[in-house]
Automatic annotation (TrEMBL):
Pfam family, one: GMPPB_C
Location(s), subcellular: Cytoplasm
Lineage, opening ranks: Eukaryota, Metazoa, Chordata, Craniata, Vertebrata
Family of the protein in this entry: Belongs to the transferase hexapeptide repeat family.
Gene encoding the protein: GMPPA
Official protein name in the record: Mannose-1-phosphate guanylyltransferase regulatory subunit alpha
Organism of derivation: Trichechus manatus latirostris
One annotated Gene Ontology cellular component of this protein: cytoplasm
The keyword Kinase is annotated on this UniProt entry: no
Biological processes annotated in GO: GDP-mannose metabolic process
GO molecular function (one): transferase activity
PANTHER family referenced in this protein's UniProt entry, alphabetically: SUGAR-1-PHOSPHATE GUANYL TRANSFERASE (PTHR22572)
CDD domains: M1P_guanylylT_A_like_N
Coarse class of the protein's main subcellular location: cytoplasm
Quaternary structure, from the entry: Component of the GMPPA-GMPPB mannose-1-phosphate guanylyltransferase complex composed of 4 GMPPA subunits and 8 GMPPB subunits; the complex is organized into three layers, a central layer made up of 2 GMPPA dimers sandwiched between two layers each made up of 2 GMPPB dimers.
Superkingdom, natural source: Eukaryota
């Protein structure tokens, strides 16, 4: 019997995702037409023997989370529960705090998945590797180029045995081009080192603060406190993948992840991809259209377009490399490229909404999406255009490389601006 834990974090973690995280918890942001973590849930549900999926985070449970849980339980016919941390406990603290729930029913092993990654989740191959040679920790690793590797956990392995010999979280100088994907398979013994870290932290806390007000109580950083500490002791192994993988930290990376998942739908969910039908819109490449969306026949969509529930797309609209969220309206002849149009927003006739893609270098197979800050030297970097929820763009204007905060009613064109 197996279980899976998805680490969904909490509200203050989604800063690079603003203004989109104002409306919906980041793990529920639609990527390729479904909530970001539905891709995780689908992958877990496909592993034979999966008994339960637990989401651990510090979000206040709200309507959107409850609705997601109910729908997912029904669809996958599996218990899927949310366990709320009383405070942010770090990537390992929640696993230790909820250890009884994770170990209930004596699972043989459990997957741990970061919510903000996009992957083809090779969980069954990880499980096969674990069953061949069981170890407490199995990490999924992939390669990155030297510069980008510094943004991730870096792994030095023994190439023969794949044992992790050395682990450094986001090093300041180059350590290894193998990076941690944030996808793990742990055996129940993995909780013992977590207990040791917890107990050590408690002792340190007593030394540091006899009043018991130490703010980090219960916090465990899986990467630094466990992986770095235990590397080279025969407990941590890496399973390398060359499948799709990307982090989803910013809105731009959500759009890139959407492209990766839409590409995968050809094999996994062909029914989710729009097809050209007589009298329907022209479809180019991979496009998702929610069944309730109304798309005019003269619109041209794709590649990499995802259209949400109740969206209206008018005559002559051109839409490429974009996500249009629930209830938005694109009036006749608008052109939307490399952009995210927020919930309930309206783009007026003949308006052009355009962003600049920041995709990984296509000539470097080890390149990943750069999810760095929006600014450099005090200037907004060119990036995709984002319209927050219920924004109104008038007819015949140009909105280029800009971020428009929710509920704004614009009256003219804007370029390279954050419109507050
Ligand atoms: N439950 C819970 N989840 C958390 C907490 N803090 C972070 N998380 C979740 O844990 C995951 C990792 O979040 P970060 O702490 O932001 O780390 P990171 O910068 O994404 O780096 C991690 O992931 C990389 C791969 O994407 C790794 O390369 C890196 O080593 C590390 O594991 C995310 O899914 C986030 O939601 C917490 O206090 N509680």
């Amino acid at each position: 019997m197996l279980k899976a834990v998805i680490l969904i974090g909490g509200p203050q973690k989604g800063t690079r995702f603003r203004p989109l995280s104002f409306e919906v918890p980041k793990p529920l942001f639609p990527v390729a037409g479904v909530p970001m973590i539905q891709h995780h849930v689908e992958a877990c549900a496909q592993v034979p023997g999966m008994q339960e999926i637990l989401l651990i985070g510090f979000y206040q449970p709200d309507e959107s989370l409850t609705r997601f849980l109910e729908a997912a339980q029904q669809e996958f016919n599996l218990p899927i529960r949310y366990l709320q941390e009383f405070a942010p406990l770090g990537t390992g603290g929640g696993l230790y705090h909820f250890r009884d729930q994770i170990l209930a029913g004596s699972p043989e092993a459990f997957f741990v998945l970061n919510a903000d990654v996009c992957s083809d989740f090779p969980l069954s191959t990880m499980l096969d590797a674990h069953r061949c040679q069981p170890h407490p920790f199995l990490l999924l690793g992939t390669t990155a180029n030297r510069t980008q590797s510094l943004n991730y956990g870096c792994i030095v392995e023994n190439p023969q045995t794949h044992e992790v010999l050395h682990y450094v979280e986001k090093p300041s100088t180059f350590v290894s081009d193998i990076i941690n994907c944030g996808i793990y398979l742990f055996s129940p013994e993995a909780l013992k080192p977590l207990r040791d870290v917890f107990q050590r932290n408690q002792q340190d806390r007593q030394l540091e603060d006899s009043l018991g007000l130490w703010p980090g109580a219960g916090t465990i950083r899986l990467e630094q406190d466990v992986f770095s500490a235990l590397a080279g002791q025969g407990q941590i192994y890496v399973h390398l993948t060359d499948g799709i993988w990307s982090q989803i930290k910013s809105a731009g990376s959500a759009l890139y992840a959407s492209r990766l998942y839409l590409g995968r739908y050809q094999f996994t969910h062909p029914e989710r991809l729009a097809k050209h039908t007589p009298g329907g819109p022209r479809i180019r490449g991979n496009v998702y259209i929610h069944p309730t969306a109304k798309v005019a026949p003269s619109a041209v969509l794709g590649p990499n377009v995802s259209i949400g529930e109740g969206v209206t797309v008018g005559e002559g609209v051109r839409l490429r490399e974009s996500i249009v969220l629930h209830g938005a309206t694109l009036q006749e002849h608008t052109c939307v490229l490399h952009s995210i149009v927020g919930w309930g927003s309206t783009v007026g006739r003949w308006a052009r909404v355009e962003g600049t893609p920041n995709d990984p270098n296509p000539n470097d197979p080890r390149a990943h999406m750069d999810s760095e800050s929006l600014f450099k030297d005090g200037k907004l970097l060119p990036a995709i255009t984002i319209l927050g929820c219920r924004v109104r763009i008038p007819a015949e204007v140009l909105i280029l490389n800009s971020i428009v905060l929710p509920h704004k009613e614009l009256s003219r064109s804007f370029t390279n601006q954050i419109i507050l």
